[in-house]
Amino acid sequence: MTITITAFERSPDGGKGLARDMRVRWALEEVGQPYEVRLISFANMKGPDHLAIHPFGQIPTYEEGSLVLFETGSIVLYLAEQHAGLLPRDSNARMRAITWMFAALNTIEPTILELTTAKILEGDKPWTEERLPLVKDRIRARLDKLSAHLGVSDWLDGAFSVGDLLMVSVLLRLRMSGILDEYQNLAAYVARGEARPAYIRAFAAQFAINAQDRTQV
Amino acid sequence: MTITITAFERSPDGGKGLARDMRVRWALEEVGQPYEVRLISFANMKGPDHLAIHPFGQIPTYEEGSLVLFETGSIVLYLAEQHAGLLPRDSNARMRAITWMFAALNTIEPTILELTTAKILEGDKPWTEERLPLVKDRIRARLDKLSAHLGVSDWLDGAFSVGDLLMVSVLLRLRMSGILDEYQNLAAYVARGEARPAYIRAFAAQFAINAQDRTQV
C-alpha cells in the first residue's frame, strides 16, 4: 500500500530540515519504507480538502490505504510499531522509548517553541530584546536536566529509538540560537543523529524540493 | 502488582485538579485500577532519588513492578494499552485516538503553557499587559480549529478515548482565563469530561490531599 505524506510546497526554513515532515521522512527512512510526497501551498493548507485530513491545517499528514493520520508524534509512533528498528522489543524498554517521545514533544519542545514565537511572531515588539534572555533561561533549565541524564551515553535509553529521533529533531531547532552548543554532550548527541544514513537521506529529499524551488524563483 | 504514582505534597493549584497527576489518576479510574500515591515535596522533587526516576524532577511518575515511567502522555498511553476502556479496538481508530493525544500535548498545550508562563513567571514584567492579548489570540487560533472539528459531536473521534482524556485535561487549564467559554461546544465538551464518574473520583482523591493540607496550615 502506498504511503503518502504531505509537506510544504515552499518550506519557511528554506530547506534547513526544520519543517515537521522531516521527522516523518526520517522515521520512514529508518524503517526502510518508500513514500510519496504531496506538496501543499500555504493557501491550500487552510482549505477544506486539507482540513478534512488535518483539522489544524498543518503539515505533515500520513495516508496509507484507509489510514489517515496527522501529528508527527502519532505518525512516527505508528511507523515504529509497524516496522522494526525504532522501538525495543522488551516491553519496559519499549515504554521508556515512548516516554522519551513525549518528553521531546511535551517537556522540551514547548520551551523551544516559545523562543521561535518570540523571534518570529514578536520579533518587532519593544519587549523582545529584554524578554529573550528569560525565554532562553527556561530552555536551559530543561536542557540542564536533559544533559545530566544523557551524560556520556550515545542515546537517551540504550539503543537509538523513536524517542531519540524526536528529541534530536526538537533540539535541532535550537542550533541557530547557539544554546545547543552550550551543552557539549547534547550537541554531540544531535550530531550523531544527523550522521545516521536515514537522516541524511531524509534531509536530502526535503532539501531537493526547496533547492528546486529556489531555482524556479 | 501495586501501582504507585507520585504527586505534589502541596499542589501549587490548591487542589483545582490542574497538576498533572490528575491526568494519570483519571486514566487509572477509567480503567478501574487501584493505585497508591507517594507525595513529594518541592525540595525532594529536585533530589537524586526522584531525579533517578524522573530526569526533569517533576511529577507524576508511575511505578509498577520493574516498570518506571514519567511523562503523563506515556503513562496514560500505557494504561490505555494494558486495559480496556480508553482505546478503540479497530486499529485505524486506535491510531486516531493516539493522534488526539499528541494533538492535545503538542499542538494545543504549548500555546496554553505560554499563557501560564506569561501570568506566573512574567506577571510582574512591564510588557505582560500588552503582550497577553497576543498570547491569547494564538490560543484562539488553535481553538477555532478544534471547535470546528468537534462540531456537535460529544467526543473528538467516536467514543470517549485517551485522546479526549488528555484534550479535556489540557483545556481545563484555560477555564480561569475565560477563553474556554468563548467556545460553547468546547466548554460543553470539557464539562462532559468532568461529569464522568472516573473524573469525579480522581478529582476527589487529589482534592482530599490538598484539603487536608489546608487544615494543617
UniProtKB/TrEMBL annotation, chains A, B:
CDD domains reported for this sequence: GST_C_8 (cd03207), GST_N_GTT1_like (cd03046)
- Keywords of this protein's UniProt record, alphabetized? Transferase
Question: SUPFAM superfamilies, alphabetically?
Answer: GST C-terminal domain-like (SSF47616), Thioredoxin-like (SSF52833)
Any idea where the GST N-terminal domain is?
A: 8-87
Name of the protein in its database record: Glutathione S-transferase
Which Pfam families does the record associate with it? GST_N
| A GO molecular function held by the record | transferase activity
Which superkingdom is the protein from?
Bacteria
Q: Does the keyword Transferase apply?
A: yes
Q: Where is the GST C-terminal domain?
A: 90-217
- Annotated source species: Manganibacter manganicus
Keyword field contains Transferase? yes
